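Q: I'm building a small set of examples for a reading group on sequence design. Run inverse folding on the following structure and report the sequence directly after it, with nothing in between.
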């Protein structure tokens, strides 16, 4: 027993460098932001304690509420489209051979493109005067202009995000599908199961773990989206594509309101944490019941 305790203590010593790195890169900056969120900072040497004033002001700000609702709508739309589409793409892919390798490389290509480049690509691609997509739609009789029409701007943003990130869902789903034993498919074929029954009772249970990861990654990333809409639309037309991250950046960098921006970022962080926790616990609760 004494030897086991010594080994456990040594294991903690081995983990200590990782804990220190996490504390330095995550906890310490977070505590700095918490400290700023309860102060009115006039300059680097003049500041006053204001308690929860910035938190109340942020939650009462109609611009914050509008940006939050836009963020919810964007994240919901992204998940509704990308998760089923990624599964469909993964199910249609070959599982071995040269074709499978080539398709995996092509599928991963959008994920290798930097976010600001993605925004620039779609900014040019969707332009109504010289962009291939914009010009084609206008030639077909559709008066498309994402710089002046809010609906067009939203559809362009969604199309850009779907193009960029559906590959991630497809790759995760493909990894889950390749783990399904061939015997399961053979048994389903002998039982005369339809394609939907094979997916529902054979593949979907095996995909549950990777789909939870995919939803969590896409939920958190869509809630933190900044670069792509900033490059593509700049938050316009008007404020129709201004999300929480853009509003926060304007407040912190553009207006240099460090106190309100710090309170905003804490609320922002707690919302992402809450949504991720609610989704994860609900899925895990259903799995425990089953």
């Amino acid at each position: 027993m004494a030897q086991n305790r010594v080994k456990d203590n040594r294991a903690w010593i081995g983990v200590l460098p990782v804990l220190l790195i996490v504390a330095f890169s995550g906890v310490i900056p977070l505590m700095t932001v918490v400290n700023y969120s309860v102060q009115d900072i006039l300059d680097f040497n003049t500041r006053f304690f204001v308690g929860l004033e910035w938190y109340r002001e942020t939650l009462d700000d109609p611009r914050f509420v509008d940006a939050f609702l836009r963020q919810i709508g964007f994240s919901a739309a992204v998940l509704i489209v990308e998760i089923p589409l990624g599964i469909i793409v993964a199910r249609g892919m070959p599982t071995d051979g040269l074709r499978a390798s080539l398709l995996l490389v092509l599928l991963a290509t959008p994920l290798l493109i930097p976010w600001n480049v993605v925004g620039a690509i779609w900014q040019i691609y969707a332009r109504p005067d010289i962009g291939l997509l914009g010009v084609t739609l206008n030639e077909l009789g559709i008066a498309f202009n994402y710089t002046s029409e809010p609906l067009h701007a939203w559809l362009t943003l969604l199309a850009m995000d779907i193009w960029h990130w559906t590959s991630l869902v497809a790759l995760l789903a493909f990894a889950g599908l390749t783990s399904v034993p061939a015997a399961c498919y053979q048994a389903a074929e002998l039982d005369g199961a339809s394609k939907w029954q094979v997916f529902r009772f054979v593949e979907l249970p095996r995909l549950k773990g990777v789909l939870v990861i995919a939803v969590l990654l896409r939920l958190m990333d869509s809630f933190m989206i900044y670069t792509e809409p900033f490059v593509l639309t700049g938050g316009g037309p008007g404020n129709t594509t201004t999300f929480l991250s853009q509003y926060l950046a304007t407040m912190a960098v553009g207006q240099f309101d460090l106190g309100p921006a710090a309170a905003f970022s804490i609320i922002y962080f707690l919302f992402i944490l809450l949504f991720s926790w609610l989704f994860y616990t609900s899925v895990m609760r259903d799995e425990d019941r089953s």
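The chain has one domain: 58-289.
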